[in-house]
Amino acid sequence: MRIPFRIPTAAAVAVAALAASFAQEAKLPTPDAILAAYIQATGGKAVIEKATSRQAKGSFEMTAMGLKGGFEMFAKAPDKFLMKMDVPGFGPVQEGFDGTVAWSQNPAQGLREKSGVELAFTKRSSQFYRDLRLKELYPKMEVKGVEKVGEKDVYHVEAIPAEGGPEQWYFDKASGLMIRFIVDMEGPQGKVTITTDVEDYKGLETGGKIPMLLRQKIGSMEMHLRIEDVKVNVAIDEAIFRKPAA
Amino acid sequence: MGRLTALLLVAFSAAEGQNSREIRLQAFDMVWRTIKDHHYDPTFGGVDWDAVRRQYEPRIEQTKTDSELHGVLDRMIGELKLSHFRILAADAILDNVNAEPWLGGIGADVRMIDGEAVITRLDSGSPALDAGLRTGFVIRKIDGKTVAETVARVARTGESQPRQRLYAARLIRHQLDGESGTKVRVEFLDGSDGVRQAEIGRRSKTGELSPRFGHLPPQYTEFAAERLAGGIGYIRFNVFMISLMDRLRQGIRAMHDAPGLLFDIRGNPGGVAAMTGGIAGMLMSREASLGVMAMRSGHINIPVFPQPGSYAGPVVILTDEGSASSSEIFAAGLQELGRAVVVGERTLGAALPSVVVRLPTGAGFQYALADFKTPKGVLIEGRGAMPDQPVKLDRKSLLAGRDPQLEAALEQVRKIISSTQRSNP
Hints:
Chain A is α+β, with helices and mostly antiparallel strands. In chain A, 17% of the residues lie in helices and 47% in strands. Chain A has five helices and 13 strands. In chain B, helix 2 packs antiparallel against helix 3 (66-78) and helix 5 crosses helix 6 (161-176). Chain B contains eleven helices and 22 strands. Chain B is globular, with a radius of gyration of 22 Å.
């Protein structure tokens, strides 16, 4: 799972930038233009680079299964990440990356290290300045067209990483914000398509804008993650990102 | 996911009442549409699902009560002829098949053998043992209610014979259980078929309740690990619930020097499917998969990640027709991976991962998200896991104080040990 953290917002600037790049022609914008507008919409490069760490707390709910619980996320530049979920009746579920080793631990299956496509996906997702490096992380990008997500007109961008399958990104034409992404997750656990709707972008005190609600769908299953508190530039002990001892 | 269908009934009982026609129609539409949009098999196993709607919608219009509605819905989803599709309502026939688990009991396990409720296991020092009951004795009446009545009630479900035997045994065990400190009157046949009666005081069970896991209410959990003759390890657990996982890991690690290890999952109805891969990770030295759950789009494996302290010796798994869902995934998966020999009876054949959602009427609707196939692509649903060595449990052996399935399993362990010793002198 990926929760994009972005910084100060200048939605108006973003929209203007995007609009300017297409005003003279009716054809689709380039991926570069869409990504640039996205960066602007979430705060701009300079503000994004001011943050070096983040810590977030929130809650999740899987209505179909009657599950509710809490989660915590920690991220530190350049590429460290930890997510801890407390699933009532199941126990703690953790996913981490220390810059080299990607790992996962849960009460049922124990501790394991990720490899292959799964490791590559985790590396990309854990990049603290991921949005600023999208072109590098996804060497092939193509704007597939203008589509609808709900009532909104969106640009559909297909992004193909060096390792792994294509991802589908949807950027709101009006705001420039990414509002949906679809990823085919593949690994020892199988292959599933995860559709994530990204909603409720809010500005942070420290600047920038991040989505506070993610709705993930896997087939008929749906999980909502609500971020309730975010702290930027907090001191985080790097030891928490390391694979725990067995 | 999967399993324990009947255990969920209680969770959905309290919220039910009599609802309006509109609410009943909404419930119908939700059930039909969920299957239409999400059933893992887009061909619905050859069933014309649109025609099913046309057939059942007029019947729903005619229902006057929630009970009638739930009956019609059950028949509608029954058209799929699959496990893990059912309406979980307080008015269901099997409303107390293993309802909220009692924490008091008499320490006796019961299975249906040749149409009789036979005691198959007695806890040492249990009230049942103290009252003179022995394995092989037949329960006839519980607090004045005949076992025959219970069996007839279960027969009305129209379920398959193995499922009827399973549900009847669960109901009988539930009737024997109760609050600790209360008493139960039992009429039984002894070893000479003499009719005897006993009033037996219930004591606190030795197991524990698991925490609630989403819609899955707390389950009574039991775990036992011991050494049998020759130091062979024996592990028995009654349900796949996460609260047992630490004890399972510790139990397996403690068997590191055992010449063989035997898992007894007879009567285990399943539980959390991910646990099967976790336990297998304590028995494997390489990454593997116990099978695949195929959804309409994509698939989920039951991966096995080798864990530190895993057991390397021979493994035998004991199953019976009460071993269902996760038990079947565990047994069939390890069997096909060549890591375990399965001894006992064919398992139930009900291994579809499922979820439960609440209907507008307050009842629960359980539906399968995916099918399940073993590593070699064998569909377990409706078939079950086949034992390498089939062995039946019979009353005569039980009366003689023997457990022929356990004996055969031990013999299998010894055979594997001796063949390993021959090939590695």
